[in-house]
Write a structure and sequence with these properties.
Helix content is 78%, strand content 0%. With 427 residues, it is an all-alpha fold. The protein has one domain: Amino acid/polyamine transporter I, CATH 1.20.1740.
């Protein structure tokens, strides 16, 4: 069966569901895909570093932050998916249509910078995993990462379904790896359940990690991308079909984002059990986590950890490139070949590795840039999703808009706090 036939079969299956010819769990299957691609951004290498540092320093006490961040992410990604279904356009396209041309150009430039900043973290994660797992020099590992992610992106030539399936498989692989890490680390599940719902913050260090987990959870590029993934995947022919497609989208977002949330929880409680529980409370980066994990749990656990990191870096880097294409096409109306974008976005990482620049400091600076840009897609998303003349029958209800505004305010304030602290301000 060709990949193009897989797309056709998925579309026909979706049509049969909308015609009420398929029911039950199998009715959801044709609509699975977009949210799993978007979920990759929530389990990228940046999440590894933040969750590991939080778990090693404070044990299980900041698990509630992961839960809160994931709930906010669910709301925002659900709105982005709904925007594409309701309008048949993605968020950057709507910005170009409704805003002055100069505003679209400015938004495009800052969004491209954010996409490149994101790609640095994702590229470094996959590169570091290759370096630690099989001993490949960092510079060569960077080039290998670029080639592999380009090959992944080439699946798009054969339709949307093969790429969705492959990235979804990588997400499941990451989940399986952390299922294994849970077995290796033997966390205290009573503590996991308790601290997942009971808030705790004490001291400036804990505050900064709360900021890091929540403030960097929602990535700007994936807010843009999700609307692009749903805009023409299954075209609704009337308002009733829009409502039905959106109901399936809600279920998919809940499933995919819950999986991402569980993976993030497992990252933190693994660090809490293995590092904090054995007195290693200052494990603040991926390299030190690997080196500390090996003597405590053995080489198998360390290899599983690096395998998940490599899958995370490769998948999130490919998704970042996809987002860059949506951003450029939407804001300014043209695209470039994927290989040119792949080369252009990997150049900063190659330079960083070649010059031996501290990757941790680089990641911090990239997060600052993301913090500056993040309010833009969230605010514009809320604006368009609340307009009846744009959204039609899928317009946000008032309580959804107000909740989203509250989430946007929290994320923006936390990001401002992160920038303030990064620039040397005391907390």
């Amino acid at each position: 069966m060709s990949a193009l036939r897989q797309d056709s079969r998925a579309e026909l299956a979706a049509r049969s569901v909308l015609a009420s010819q398929r029911t039950g769990f199998t009715a959801l299957l044709p609509f699975l895909g977009p949210a799993f691609v978007a979920a990759v951004a929530y389990i990228d290498p940046g999440n590894y570093a933040t969750n590991i540092q939080s778990g090693s320093e404070f044990g299980y006490k900041l698990l509630w932050v992961v839960v809160l961040a994931n709930l906010m992410a669910m709301l925002i990604q659900n709105m982005s998916a709904k925007l594409g279904i309701a309008t048949g356009k993605n968020l950057p396209e709507l910005c170009r249509e409704w805003f002055a041309p100069w505003i679209s150009v400015v938004l495009w430039i800052v969004s491209e910078l954010a996409a490149m900043a994101t790609d640095i973290a994702e590229f470094l994660g996959a590169t570091l995993a290759l370096n630690l797992l099989v001993g490949i020099p960092m510079l060569i590992a960077t080039l290998i990462t670029g080639v592999v992610t380009y090959v992944i992106l080439m699946l798009d030539r054969y339709g949307f379904r093969p790429l969705e399936i492959f990235i979804g498989a990588l997400v499941l692989l990451i989940g399986a790896c952390y299922g294994a890490e849970t077995w290796f680390s033997h966390p205290a599940f009573g503590q996991v359940l308790y601290h997942s719902v009971v808030p705790w913050v004490h001291g400036s260090s804990a505050i900064l990690l709360v900021v890091g987990v929540i403030g960097a959870t929602v990535m700007p590029h994936v807010v843009y991308l999700h609307s692009g993934l749903t805009q023409k995947r299954v075209l609704p022919r009337n308002d009733d079909e829009k409502k039905r497609i959106y109901r399936f989208s809600i279920k998919e977002v809940i499933i995919a984002m819950s999986l991402a949330g569980l993976i993030n929880l497992s990252m933190m409680y693994m660090a809490a059990s293995v590092f904090h529980g054995t007195g290693h409370t200052q494990v603040a980066n991926i390299s030190s986590a690997y080196r500390t994990l090996t003597p405590i749990l053995g080489p198998a656990a360390a290899a599983v950890f690096l395998t998940s990191l490599m899958a995370s870096g490769l998948s999130s880097s490919a998704v970042g490139t996809m987002a860059g294409q949506v951003i450029m096409q939407g804001f300014v109306g043209f695209t470039i070949p994927v290989w040119i974008r792949r080369v252009a976005t990997m150049i900063p990482t190659v330079i960083i590795v070649a010059l031996g620049i501290n990757p941790t400091k680089t990641l911090v600076l990239s997060q600052v840039l993301l913090s500056v840009v993040l309010p833009v897609p969230i605010v514009t998303l809320i604006y368009f999703a609340s307009k009846p003349n744009i959204m039609g029958v899928l317009v946000n209800r008032r309580y959804v808009t107000y909740t989203a505004m509250l989430c946007a305010a929290v994320i923006t304030l936390l990001n401002l706090l992160l920038i303030y602290e990064t620039l040397g301000g005391p907390i």
